[in-house]
Amino acid sequence: MAQKPSIPKGTRDFSPAEVAKRQYIMQIIKSNFEKFGFQPIETPSFENSDTLMGKYGEEGDRLIFKILNSGDFLAKADENLLNNKDSLKLTSHISEKALRYDLTVPFARYVVQHQNEIEFPFKRYQIQPVWRADRPQKGRFREFYQCDADVVGSTSLWQEVELVQLYDSVFSELGLEGVTIKINNRKILSGIAEVIGASDKLIDFTVALDKLDKIGEDGVKKEMTEKGISAKAIEKVQPLFQFTGTISEKIDKLSELLASSEEGLKGVAELRFICDSIQNLGLDKSVLDLDVTLARGLNYYTGAIFEVAPPASVAMGSIGGGGRYDDLTGIFGLKNMSGVGISFGLDRIYLVIEELNLFPETVTSTSTALFINYGEKEALYAMKAIASLRKAGVKVELYPDNAKVGKQFQHADKRGIKFAVIAGETEMEKGIFALKDLISGEQFEVDFIALQSSLQK
Amino acid sequence: MAQKPSIPKGTRDFSPAEVAKRQYIMQIIKSNFEKFGFQPIETPSFENSDTLMGKYGEEGDRLIFKILNSGDFLAKADENLLNNKDSLKLTSHISEKALRYDLTVPFARYVVQHQNEIEFPFKRYQIQPVWRADRPQKGRFREFYQCDADVVGSTSLWQEVELVQLYDSVFSELGLEGVTIKINNRKILSGIAEVIGASDKLIDFTVALDKLDKIGEDGVKKEMTEKGISAKAIEKVQPLFQFTGTISEKIDKLSELLASSEEGLKGVAELRFICDSIQNLGLDKSVLDLDVTLARGLNYYTGAIFEVAPPASVAMGSIGGGGRYDDLTGIFGLKNMSGVGISFGLDRIYLVIEELNLFPETVTSTSTALFINYGEKEALYAMKAIASLRKAGVKVELYPDNAKVGKQFQHADKRGIKFAVIAGETEMEKGIFALKDLISGEQFEVDFIALQSSLQK
User: SUPFAM superfamilies, from UniProt (chains A, B) (predicted)?
Assistant: First the structure.
């Protein structure tokens, strides 16, 4: 035990300062979720393995943390698998539970399991950690929080409108100016695939188109050709290379471009409703933009697709994303439950706010004042004041030992505590306190009422 | 997948109503922790196995959930262990991480790992789930929250005084009348063991003495004799059979009884300081009582021992406990770090508050008002009001579809929403809203300002 202890790679300890900042962000997300009518649920950290396995693809299955069965887990294990050291197949014999990989699958499981208690449409939010056995790297952890809001049981496009407003409301309250909420629609992507006549080339197409800013029209067209997209197809979508203007103008262009695709036009109509409504209702500090290259979650999203980019001054990937999936709960046997939801990327939002210096100074868990300890009798005098201050909601504490006064002041300083309260023999006799502002160095004699009102400021 | 999905035994889903109530309790605990100068930390859900194993005894080791190594975990596993199906020994070969079993050991690990960044004395709180592979039963779960506050790096008895106040402050704010904070001291137990001349019989002694109310003095003495405690020893502690009166009187009796034990008298002095201070400072709704049968955590506590009993009207075990341990961080190589801490039992506190009907009516995550949806144009009118109300902090929502009005009202009813706002064509033309109180059935025409002030009440 001489070795200094450590924690598993990809996990983190959070100091008091970090917890306070994380809670500040989560509190704003949570209060906005509730203002928008979302209600919290919580699901267990681990689920039965068959609830999770097979829901995230082969790669996902590999990244799920499995929990070893308790007790004599090998007793019933297949001997052949053991002898062959077949880790993959043995897993299901010695592990029946696994840590949550995201919040969406547990939510779908929850909805199906509790369908008779739930009043639909059901707007739920969930802020809980998830675990992935991913290779840790900068900004990617094996344990991290997801903050999700989803509605299930309604196909109304007002949900999409509200989710755009919700993003705007949260990021505006966090003080972020110029967040871009990018929107696209799966049906528009399908329409484009129809038009270029190659749905298997859709990802190649959007990936190439996304590079327009960087490599220019010719570069993009070259890449598309290399990927096997025909010159004729590229010609058909020529308007996408001059895809500028307001959202309304962009939607008009798409409407023309996708005129031959029924599916595509459905997507245009959905987009138009959402964007027009947002235009009518207005956003606070964010901007809504249409981005036809947005193709996240292509395998499960069926309608709107969202992704949020931080203010342009910060070099960082998306800080949120989401979309509509028409069959959320089908995997658990409950058909025809359309869902739409968004997620907030807590860790990245934290980094953005830190970089832009937007955490309010008041975000701290430290005490407002430290009472200096001058010995048993004086400490009791201090403790009486402390009890009253705490009742009034003021965060205060007594230095626990009658140590050298210099050491006690140093403690306040290192802890970032703003005030010291001196309650020695002199003050005690006069029934007063000396309040010292540790930043300005000023010191005043105050009675209890003045002390309380000073510390409550 | 036709089978209805379920969750692992011993785990729970929490509905919106349950989450709201749990958060209400946790919020009160948290805000009191901070008022008392404790700061939050968070540690990872899983730790390296060697951080946890061997810290909770053999039984504890068995109850720790182990996480299977990712990838081809059998590749490096010992063939003999596999062939012999030696589950116990194989575990450390195929599992390097384990889920947190409590918050104390991770805290000790945190203190040692971050000792150079921490300013001592360090008052930390931690509210996080822990996991135990215990047999699930009523009130015992495999995943549950612990709410701990500990101070490390100070031997001052003011800490114990503050922890008693902290218990009182939390339970009083929760509305509980007559919670009993029971206190004892390890050194007093040592003193009693000295006096009865059999330290190996201490637990038998306290267990028997604890039954005084139920089986009477003769019954207790009979049990003690059966357990091998001599008649002479029982005679020596005769005062404990009439151990009544105020705390001060009880302490006086102990002082006499333990006159021959240096250790015991140290315990008496500590108790006296704590109890005198609390008497001087006063408690709100709780009662402090001395209970010499309190012997929890006998193996690690070295000073004060705490346990909290709910109001007598509720039949329930302890709702909190804690104590002083002189060598918290020694297991990780950092000596001479005294710690003292307390824990709140969230699940039991929840049941007590539920049973006494003490959850405020306002504890709910549901919306204050539902706007009835009369179609696209009207919904946009409603959405404008909704956006303003949300900015003012009011929780409101629009029924997403233009469904039958009766169905929409039913939805509000089932969700426990108090008000419906009718914004149909008539209201829209007049620029007003009809506000319907769904409990009284009353309905008023209001302008936006009146609407907002009604819903903010």
Answer: Class II aaRS ABD-related, Class II aaRS and biotin synthetases
